[in-house]
Specification:
Elements lengths: L8 E6 L3 H12 L4 E5 L25 H13 L4 E4 L2 E7 L2 E6 L3 E9 L3 E3 L15 E2 L2 H4 L7 E5 L3 H10 L5 E5 L9 H8 L4 E4 L2 E8 L3 E8 L5 E5 L3 E3 L3 E3 L29 E3 L11 H21 L1
Parallel strand pairs: 1-2, 1-6, 2-3, 6-17, 8-15, 9-10, 9-15, 10-11
Antiparallel strand pairs: 4-5, 5-6, 7-16, 12-13, 13-14
Helix pairs in contact: 1-2, 1-6, 4-5
């Protein structure tokens, strides 16, 4: 595919999660020629969330799949173009930004980065070997494969507990392995997990290895206080130990913190004029769908003002 050199886009948005779709809605509605590039499904991690209870306007909650579908439909309504591809590099070309993908190259006057985050790997022996064979990072994707099984969930935050609660629909027993002696998750998720009859806890513990044959059979766990090492039999390991921003393709183009999150001002503008960042890939206090939507709107409006002034 050749780069579309005949006329640069006004705005290119990288990432089709809630921030990207909101930015696309605002930019295309402002009559800006807009292209959104998404490497996977519209909605991002939102699509794998069974029930979203804290997004305004849905008093009974809404599935991530349904909310993604509605946002995509609305974002495309005003003429935003979309392509399915993965961005490999962004560079500057005079006043333009060049976006390279596996399928081509695209030029734009303003760029909005909405690439979100991905689940952090544990980095222990067996993790990569057993991915898709008992190791998973998505309960809604893989939960049904573990019907009547005994499994472990690693982590103690919101993601770990919401995914664990979803998995109780399928499994016989579930053990949450957490490196501390108290959970970090929102209180309502803690209460549900602590009182669930299928969930037990292994406190002050870290996974050191995942073992098996064709599939996962056990995890090796170390008590961080006593140093005791034990092997826990399990038929699956769901890992939720934090998130990392999907910003590796930027290669130092814009200012980032030590974890790779993009540093912006209140207008969502990065250290490079005309490049904005919105959503979970941006350094911020709270990473939620609602804050991503706000970021997307802010970034698109700021991009519009930047183009008017240019």
């Amino acid at each position: 595919m050749e780069a579309r050199q005949e006329k640069p886009y006004d705005v290119i948005i990288i990432g089709g999660g809630p921030a990207g779709m909101t930015a696309g809605l605002y930019a295309s509605r402002a009559k800006l020629r807009t292209l959104l590039i998404e490497s996977g499904l519209f909605g991002g991690q939102m699509t794998t969330t069974e029930l979203i209870e804290n997004f305004p306007g849905f008093p009974q909650g809404v599935s991530g799949e349904e909310l993604s579908r509605l946002m995509e439909e609305q974002a495309k309504r005003f003429g935003m173009e979309t392509i399915s591809d993965e961005v490999t590099e962004v560079s500057l070309e005079r006043d333009l930004k060049r976006v390279k993908t596996y399928g081509g190259e695209y030029l734009c006057r303003a760029l909005i980065i909405c690439t979100g985050t991905e689940y952090r790997r544990l980095g222990v022996p067996g993790e990569e070997e057993f991915r898709g064979r008992g190791v998973s990072y998505c309960a809604t994707c893989d939960g049904a494969f573990f019907k009547d099984s005994r499994i472990v969930v690693v982590g103690g935050g919101d993601s770990a507990l919401t995914e664990a609660l979803f998995l109780t629909k399928f499994v016989k027993e579930l053990t949450i392995i957490h490196r501390r002696d108290a959970l970090r998750a929102t209180k309502i998720y803690q209460e549900r997990a602590l009182n669930h009859p299928k969930i037990r806890f292994l406190w002050n513990s870290v996974v050191q290895e995942i073992k098996g044959d064709n599939v996962v059979r056990s995890v090796v766990v170390k008590d961080v206080k006593s140093g005791e090492v034990r092997e826990v039999e399990t038929e699956g390991a769901f890992l939720f130990v934090g998130l990392v921003p999907r910003t590796q393709f930027l290669k130092g183009l814009v200012l980032q913190d030590e974890s790779g999150y993009i540093i912006t001002d209140e207008k969502c503008e990065t250290s490079v004029k005309g490049i904005f960042a919105a959503g979970d890939c941006r350094k911020k206090l709270l990473r939620q769908i609602s804050t991503s939507v706000g970021d997307g709107a802010t970034a698109a409006f700021a991009a519009e003002k930047y183009l008017e002034e240019g």
